[in-house]
Design brief:
Length: about 160
């Protein structure tokens, strides 16, 4: 999660280290380290890398939006056209979800599978939502797409 502390009045003095913090879910960090150390867990490790890449990009775009708009407050400076409703609006903003919709064609969510024997060590099932409205079904994100994404190659 990105916690924006505010910016500066003079953009020439902008210091990104002072504008906020990015907090990463400790369980995700612990699990990605765990699976990196396992010799037979490429699939889980890749899923966690994908989840982490999307999460970090999502959070960083909040800081980038604050920088680009010159917003010097901890509240949203996100322009209306970069808000993906219903996740945000002109007052609360949600540039991170908007970025996901551009990069992925929707919003990535990982849903816990109660039947997965890995329990709390699972990444969950990756799904793509066209938008955030509950009346639209989520589509599974293919492992082929995730592998292509992580290799930096085009998905065909």
């Amino acid at each position: 999660m990105a916690v924006r502390r505010g910016g500066v009045d003079d953009m020439s003095r902008f210091d990104p280290k002072l504008c906020g913090d990015v907090e990463v879910n400790q369980t995700i960090v612990n699990n990605i380290v765990y699976y990196r150390q396992q010799s037979d867990s490429d699939d889980n490790y890749n899923l966690f890398k994908f989840q982490m890449a999307i999460s970090i990009a999502h959070e960083i775009v909040h800081f980038l939006t604050g920088f680009l708009t010159g917003s010097n407050s901890a509240t949203s400076g996100t322009p209306r056209m970069v808000v993906l409703e219903p996740y945000g609006n002109i007052r609360t903003g949600e540039a991170g979800r908007f970025l996901e919709s551009i990069l992925l064609g929707g919003v990535a969510e990982f849903y816990f599978n109660a039947n997965d024997p890995l329990g709390d060590k699972q990444v969950g099932n990756p799904y793509l939502l066209d938008d955030g409205y509950p009346n639209f079904p989520a589509k599974p994100i293919s492992r082929t797409y995730i592998d292509s994404f992580l290799r930096g190659s085009k998905y065909t």
